[in-house]
Design goal:
Layout (H helix, E strand, L loop, with lengths): L1 H10 L2 H9 L5 H22 L12 E6 L4 E6 L6 H23 L5 H5 L13 E9 L8 E5 L5 E5 L6 E8 L9 H12 L6 E3 L4 E7 L5 E6 L3 E2 L16 H11 L8 E7 L5 E7 L6 H4 L2 E6 L2 E4 L14 E5 L9 H6 L1 H24 L1 H21 L1 H7 L4 E3 L5 E3 H8 L10 E6 L6 H9 L4 E3 L5 H11 L3 E5 L5 H4 L12 H15 L4 E6 L8 E4 L2 H13 L4 H4 L5 E6 L3 H8 L3 H18 L5 H14 L1
Parallel strand pairs: 1-7, 13-15, 18-19, 18-20, 21-23
Antiparallel strand pairs: 1-2, 2-6, 3-4, 3-6, 4-5, 7-10, 8-9, 11-12, 12-15, 13-14, 16-17, 22-23
Helix pairs in contact: 1-4, 3-6, 10-11, 10-12, 11-12, 11-15, 17-21, 20-21, 21-22
Bound molecules: adenosine-5'-diphosphate (ADP) and magnesium ion (MG).
Length: 628
């Protein structure tokens, strides 16, 4: 009795604290109680296997039911049950001593969540929704007496002799006024579907008849009727618990469809299975990635021994794999702890590394086994690989072997292959290798055309992540620079010794420059006269590689980069001094027609790059008609 007295002094305030801090989400009371029922059932099965229980196991289904009229929710199992002594030991003492410690520590804890997870308060989560809880139980042990425990959420509890005739435990919750929302078929069904769908013991919802409202009688009083509902809601052996050798592709695809009914088939999957130095199973799927990344994040479900925990797997799964789908199950991930705690956890770090390695191995295997098939999937896979290369050094080391670069002819190269390919043609006079790329085949068509004419190769890097990817590989590859194909005129993209001389005299160059400046009449365009091949366009508009990249980064990244986003666009206009049109402009009869021709040539350049719109476009069309 003294013990009881001591405990109650310390634990007077435990329930308000549990209610407030233990779990943000009240619905998990059901997860805790059903898991306990499943645990008790697995224990009796194990005892039977070990020959320590000789009785009939019988039907072991766990049943969840509710009674709207009596305002109760009942969780029944046919597990090993408890004697009155065991209730005292497992329910009162352990939980209460845990709680005492909890209250002690809580006094100065900064983050209550950091210590909550360390105590086995699972059962007590019942008091988040119940004002009164009853345990009716009969132990499997021969000659046991049934027992009833009741508690109203204070530290007072009562144990008396019970009437239960069959082995197992019924937990009856008398739902409090604030939680009547849980006395609803769909609500409970939803919670069970979320947390209990893959529990290893069959779960039935609503076997016992339910009283449901049935209109009103003559006096205006509510009428009630009983309905029978009876359905098993879980899959007791989901695929991640099985051995990969027992599974076919169809099984993986069917499981994927059951998790994400509306999704397209995944590209491929990885079956995770380790038990040392930590325990982890699961299946991760590579989905077809759509443009809306946010919608596709947080699709991985985290389980602990088949009990659903959360779909917030940040920190457990590497950031670059957050777009993956599927399931991971590990009892070694601490639950109910804060993020900072999770990040520091040794197992979590190991799990993170393991997943990264498995993904890299799988990609490498796919690449080696069937390169053509891998190339065909590259558009979708590429996003993961590039993201991984940028964000994890370890992954870069592996990923550089199976990262592909695609060119405008839809040919694929590994990083090494590509280097070999362009080395002879795209090395500039200072021994720098220049990779050219396009972010928009249509808009940059004329530039691509010029580059290809020069026997250069042009890569296609047009996905949202490519901005960052370009920056990253540039920092990794030796003496290599990446330039967007429209960042300069073709002669200057890759500077070689032999360039065309500008055939114009200095005076001629000066007046051509002035004529164009007059025609363009916009200070954000800088005009230069260049000596290019006469075959090249008379006018080319470019934005410097560096400036454009900064602006692109500002758009996707924000932060300190956003400064660049606020700068006005500044373009360079290169006039090809060797083009016959320039000669024609110089020879035109008066300044007015010179400017008109210059304007026309400039607008044509804008037009070919998709930069001519609205009023300018209309004026251009009018002028063109006049000129014809
Ligand atoms: P945990 O499940 O982490 O041990 P809980 O607070 O959920 O913590 O449960 C405390 C203990 O009470 C369990 O370890 C178990 O011994 C006992 N218990 C709870 N529910 C049942 C049940 N349905 N049948 C038998 N024993 C139970
Ligand atoms: Mg428990």
């Amino acid at each position: 009795m003294q013990e009881k007295g001591t405990i109650s002094i310390h634990t007077e305030n435990i329930f308000p604290i549990i209610k407030k801090f233990l779990y943000s989400d009240h619905e998990i009371f059901l997860r805790e109680l059903v898991s306990n029922a499943v645990d008790a059932t697995q224990k009796i099965k194990r005892l039977a296997t070990l020959g320590q229980y000789a009785g009939e196991l019988g039907d072991l289904t766990v049943e969840v039911s509710f009674d709207e009229k009596k305002k109760t929710i009942t969780i029944s199992d046919k597990g090993l049950g408890m004697t009155a002594e065991e209730i005292k030991k497992y329910i009162n003492q352990i939980a209460f001593s845990g709680a005492t410690e909890f209250v002690e520590k809580f006094k100065d804890a900064k983050d209550a969540n950091e210590i909550i997870g360390k105590f086995g308060l699972g059962f007590y989560s019942a008091f988040m929704v119940a004002k009164n809880v009853e345990i009716h139980t009969l132990s499997y042990q021969e000659g046991s007496e049934p027992a009833i425990w009741t508690c109203d959420g204070s530290t007072e509890f009562e144990i008396k002799k019970g009437k239960k005739k069959s082995r197992g435990t019924d937990i009856i919750l008398h739902v409090n006024e604030d939680s009547v929302e849980f006395l609803d078929k769909w609500k409970l069904q939803g919670i069970l579907d979320k947390y209990c769908k893959f529990l290893p013991i069959p779960i039935k919802f609503g076997t016992k008849s339910e009283s449901v409202e049935d209109g009103v009688d003559d006096k205006g009083e509510k009428k009630w009727k009983s309905v029978e509902v009876d359905n098993i809601l879980n899959t007791t052996a989901p695929i991640w618990t099985k051995s990969p050798s027992d599974l076919q592709d169809e099984d993986y695809l069917a499981f994927y469809k059951s998790l994400y009914p509306m999704s397209e088939d995944p590209l491929f999957w990885i079956h995770l299975n380790v038990d040392y130095p930590f325990n982890l199973t699961g299946v991760l799927y590579f989905p077809k990635v759509k443009n809306d990344f946010e919608l596709q994040r947080n699709k991985i479900k985290l389980f602990s021994r088949q009990v659903f925990i959360t779909d917030e797997v940040k920190d457990i799964v590497p950031e670059f794999l957050m777009l993956l789908h599927g399931v991971i199950d590990s009892p070694d991930i601490p639950l109910n702890v804060s993020r900072s705690f999770l990040q520091a956890d040794g197992n979590v770090k190991k799990i993170n590394n393991y997943i990264t390695k498995k993904v890299a191995d799988k990609l490498s295997e796919l690449f080696k086994k069937d390169r053509k098939a891998y190339e065909a999937k590259w558009n979708d896979i590429g996003l993961f690989v590039k993201y991984g290369m940028i964000s994890e050094e370890k992954f870069y080391e592996k990923g550089k072997e199976f990262t592909l670069l695609k060119n405008t002819k839809e040919e694929y190269f590994t990083l090494d292959e590509y280097r070999e390919k362009v080395l002879p043609t795209q090395t500039d006079k200072s021994e720098q290798l220049v990779y050219l790329y396009s972010t928009d085949l249509k808009k940059q068509d004329s530039f691509i055309d010029s580059a290809l004419k020069k026997e250069y190769d042009v890569l296609v890097l047009d996905s949202p992540i490519d901005n960052h990817f370009i920056q990253h590989i540039e920092s990794k590859l030796e003496k290599t620079q990446l330039k967007r194909v429209d960042s300069d005129v073709v002669e200057k993209l890759i500077q070689k010794d032999s360039t065309y001389a500008n055939l114009l005299t200095e005076d001629q160059s000066k007046s051509v420059k002035e004529l164009f400046e007059k025609a363009i009449a916009n200070k954000t365009y800088t005009v230069d006269i260049e000596g290019l091949s006469p075959e090249e366009m008379p006018v080319t508009i470019t934005m410097e590689e560096w400036m454009r990249r900064m602006k692109d980064m500002a758009q996707t990244g924000g932060g300190p980069m956003s400064f660049y986003g606020s700068l006005p666009d500044s373009y360079k206009v290169a006039i090809n001094g060797n083009h016959p049109l320039v000669d024609k402009i110089l020879k035109a009869e008066n300044e007015e027609s010179q400017v008109k021709l210059a304007k026309q040539a400039f607008d044509l350049a804008l037009l070919s790059q998709g930069l001519l719109t609205g009023k300018d476009l209309t004026a251009f069309v009018k002028r063109s008609v006049e000129l014809i």
